[in-house]
Write a structure and sequence with these properties.
By secondary structure, the protein is an alpha/beta fold. Helix content is 42%, strand content 18%. Helix 1 packs across helix 6, helix 5 crosses helix 6 and helix 9 runs parallel beside helix 10. The N terminus is likely disordered.
Length: 313
């Protein structure tokens, strides 16, 4: 196994988001001050990424003499939130047990342009082979965290929290939701298995809002929240009368949001959704809603710019 500087805060956050049996064990290990393994979903994501890039072998890295050693520095080309260290580390762990990674920045830290983020020491071939995959994870997750931070900063001082959505890059759901947390956002449901969100298309299957809410509460696991989407204040009132504890206000304008908050009077948690931008999120938050969901944090990702500078030693 490669020697890497384990960031227990970031691994604990990943484990908290992806709460299967293995990650529960990892949280226990971290609480006792040591780390035994990388969460399995990180291992699998990296395996998939390396397989699609390296395939049967890196033909170009094979040109470098096998005994060659190298030092490589990852440099941030812009100011951004650093996110993705567990995936970066795992990439090189899978390629060589001789690579050492020395991090110069903490997960969630803000970099300056041309700042050295980390240094790698070890055999040249696996460093070259892992460069693109490791940087891809770092760039995408840093970009996601950076976007989450920008949205979260706009609503500081309000009670609202920024939520992510399921509009994520396939295969990177947990990774991007982790990045949202690193950036200061809050996770909505991870997938279809840990929360009920009754939307317009579900209601078109002849169910009324009230009937759908009653059925959801009767069948959903105790650990899953139940939320219903409404498109008008009248539908909100119907949902509240049916005992809804969480309601998504779909594409409400500011006037409708203010009215919805007044009608709700604290009975349910309210989530504003639809057409949320950096320019209008503060106004939405000031209406008094509890959550604001923003698909753009994970869907419209501007990957952060990092470079890996390589030297033979």
């Amino acid at each position: 196994m490669a020697f890497v500087s384990v960031d227990t805060h970031s691994v604990a956050l990943v484990s908290d988001i992806y709460s299967d049996v293995q990650c529960t064990l990892i949280r226990i290990l971290i609480s006792r001050g040591f780390m035994a393994a990388t969460p399995q979903h990180i291992v699998m994501a990296v395996q998939t990424a390396l397989a699609e890039d390296i395939g049967d072998g890196d033909l170009t890295a094979a040109l470098v003499p096998d005994a060659t050693s190298a030092i490589a520095r990852v440099v941030s080309r812009e100011s951004t939130v650093v996110c993705g260290r567990p995936w970066f580390d795992e990439t090189f762990r899978q390629l060589s047990d001789e690579i050492r990674i020395d991090w110069r920045t903490q997960e969630g830290a803000q970099t300056a342009p041309e700042q050295i983020v980390c240094e790698l020491h070890g055999p040249a071939r696996p460093i070259l082979s892992g460069e693109r995959t490791a940087l891809n994870f770092l760039q995408i997750l840093s970009g996601t965290a950076n976007q989450a931070k920008r949205f979260a900063e706009r609503i500081v001082g309000t009670k609202a929290r920024v939520l992510d959505t399921r509009k994520t890059i396939p295969g990177l759901r947990v990774a991007q939701k982790y990045a949202v947390r690193v950036g200061g956002g809050t996770n909505h449901r991870i997938g279809l298995y840990d929360g009920v969100l009754i939307k317009e298309n579900h209601l078109r299957s002849t169910m009324t809002i009230a009937a759908a809410i009653r059925t959801a509460y009767a069948h959903a696991p105790a650990s899953a929240f139940v939320e219903v989407e409404v498109e008008s204040v009248a539908e909100l009132e119907e949902a509240l009368d049916a005992g809804a504890q969480r309601v998504l206000l779909d594409n409400f304008n500011l006037q409708q949001l203010n009215e919805a908050v007044a009608v709700n009077a604290g009975r349910a948690l309210l989530e504003a959704s639809g057409n949320v931008t950096l320019d209008n999120i503060a106004e939405i938050a000031n209406t008094g809603v509890d959550y604001i969901s923003v698909g753009a944090m994970t869907k419209h990702v501007h990957a952060a710019d990092f470079s890996l500078l390589f030297d033979i030693i």
